[in-house]
Amino acid sequence: MPAVRRKFENGGEVQDLILEAVQRLSAGELIGIPSQLGYIGVAKGVRSPDESEPGWTALASEACQSAAPQLRWAWALRSTGELNDFFAAPPDTARRLLTRCKPGTLAVQLEADRFRFRTPFAEAHRFTDGQLQSWSGSGSTSHVLCLLLAGELAKVLQTMCPWPLLVTWPAGEPQAEDNSLAKTADSLENLLSDCMNYIIDAGTLDDTCAPAIAEIQGQGVGIIQSGQIEDAAIMERRGPSILFVCTGNTCRSPMAEALCRKLLAERLGCNPDELATQGYRISSAGLAAEFGYPASPEAVQLLAEDGIELSDHHSQPISVPLLEEADLILTMTAQHRQMIVTHRPDLAARIRVLGPNDRDIPDPIGGGMDVYRRCREAIEAGLAPVIEELTKQP
Fold first, then answer.
1. Which range has highest mean pLDDT (141-145, 195-199, 345-349)?
2. Quick check: pTM over 0.90?
3. Region(s) of the chain under CATH 3.40.50.2300
4. What residues does the Phosphotyrosine protein phosphatase I domain cover (predicted)?
5. Active-site option among 64, 101, 146, 246
6. What is the mean pLDDT of the chain?
7. Which residues contact 334 (CB under 8 A, 6 or more apart)?
8. Under 8 Å CB-to-CB from 291, ≥6 apart: which residues?
9. 344 among known catalytic residues
10. What's the CATH fold of domain 241-392?
11. How confident is the model at residue 45 (pLDDT cuts 50, 70, 90)?
């Protein structure tokens, strides 16, 4: 029986469409919606081993079983914070990559032994004796794929659903001339014939792209499939991000940023300019900073003595993206830390004072070169354990 079609136009009313979709998902039906990945299939997932089967009987059809090798299945995350709901001790690398890449452009593949839910879904699925079994393109059941969804309908649907969602899209290399993404509702229904009950039809989707797929083992990253994000860009986003914070971002935090680059590069045996290719992201900002101010002349002069160029520094205020991307936020004083924690208590575990034994590093602004030298010494003393910590990461 053909799937029920509901037309959707940009700017149109979505509430009724989504309500019907939620009702069908709740009943265990497979539905189709438009997204950045083309038309995708969506099914209800389960969170607890005690939950009953959500009605995957539609997926047990012969048509769906035969389509399985042509599909990828993934858990759709509402936010990177859900990684902790889905996985026990998820690798930091997974959160970094999903945070730093636009939703829908990257899927991460994690080891299934970390997975919390009853059925460890991977890239595709098949039934054996009526039970849904995890299955990937290589026949392995050892991995789970997840991603953040993009698109108006997908986000509204996730908001309305009280349970996690499984999504599926046609597998295939995005660079191939025969791009296998489902650009029309017909193409998705043909692929999932006899098991899809409902499709929201937005016409032909031209601006679609398959996500890159990155496999994460421990903290290591391998590219399984390339997508619209270049492989090199993915690798640059895999490593830790360190943010130094002071008041005006013209004295202490710029010096800390520059010294951290120098010391870390020396430890790794590379040039500071090569840190990004190894996945390290180091930046600085100020709680009361404005955009575009240079580093103080004393800071520039002091670091120049060791060949560190600081004359090209431009101040920036602290921002939500900087905070959320950072794995480690190092403040110059306890007051700086408290100000951030007051507004973002969820980040408290990532924020600490740079000074040795959590001592404040006083602001040298207005002081002479001796004051700046003492400031630099305090920064270097605080950086020593940080460099040790960063280079011990696998």
1. 345-349
2. no
3. 241-392
4. 240-389
5. 246
6. 84
7. 353, 358, 360
8. 314, 315, 316, 317
9. no
10. Rossmann fold (3.40.50)
11. confident
3-state DSSP of the chain: CCCEEEECCCCCCCHHHHHHHHHHHHCCCEEEEEECCEEEEEEECCCCCCCCCCCHHHHHCHHHHHHHHHEEEEEEECCHHHHHHHECCCCHHHHHHHHHCCCCCEEEEEEHHHECCCCCCCCEEEEECCEEEEECCCCCCCEEEEEECCCHHHHHHHHHCCCCEEEEEECCCCCCCCCCCCCCHHHHHHHCCCCEEEEEECCCCCCCCCCEEEEEECCEEEEEECCCCCHHHHHHCCCCEEEEEECCCCCHHHHHHHHHHHHHHHHHCCCHHHCHHHCCEEEEEECCCCCCCCCCHHHHHHHHCCCCCCCCCCCCECCHHHHHHCCEEEECCHHHHHHHHHHCHHHHHHEEECCHHHCCCCCCCCCCHHHHHHHHHHHHHHHHHHHHHHHHCC
Instruction: Tell me which residue has tokens 């393109």.
Output: 137
Look at residue 361 and tell me whether its pLDDT is greater than 50. Answer: yes
358 flagged as catalytic: no
pLDDT for 394: 52
149-179: per-residue pLDDT in tens?
A: 988 889 999 999 988 898 988 876 544 444 5
Active site residue 252: yes
Options 252, 281, 350, 376, the catalytic residue: 252
CATH 3.90.870.10 fits 4-236, yes or no: yes
* Chain region(s) in the chain for CATH 3.90.870.10: 4-236
Indicate which residue of 85, 352, 363, 374 is catalytic. Answer: 363
